[in-house]
Amino acid sequence: MKAENSTRIQFDSLSSNEAYARGVTAAFLARYDPTVPQLADLKTAVSEAVTNCIVHAYPERIGPVCMTIAVYPDREVHITITDKGIGIPNVEQAMQPLFTTGNPEERSGLGFAVMQSFMDRVKVTSKPGKGTKVLLVKRLSRREST
């Protein structure tokens, strides 16, 4: 299936760029007139995925984060966030609520659980030493006419 519209950006894994990624998501999807709750869900999931890149993918350095947003027929949104960081040795374990490789006093280990709660589908693929790819999928419902 071919996307009706898409965009791709790359930015450094700086914490200030997490807000940039949320803003780009909102701006790109505005033409599809999502509901406020749908947009909030998408922005929250993007925030979690980008924060994972910033905190976990590049713990000792700044690296590239790429975000692609594509809208498919029937208003299905795919947001892909990739990094070339350290990777995740065990994706299944990493997706368990409360699991974190970061400082447990600073990190709750709920990033993937949050993404899953707001999206229709979340798929994570990773190779240690090569990086991680997170696919977030959500179908936008149509607004009711008044």
TrEMBL record:
SMART domains: HATPase_c. One of its GO terms (molecular function) is protein serine/threonine kinase activity. It is an enzyme of class 2 (transferase). The keyword Aminoacyl-tRNA synthetase does not apply. Gene3D superfamilies: Histidine kinase-like ATPase, C-terminal domain. Belongs to the anti-sigma-factor family. This is Anti-sigma F factor. The lineage of its organism: Bacteria, Bacillati, Bacillota, Clostridia, Eubacteriales.
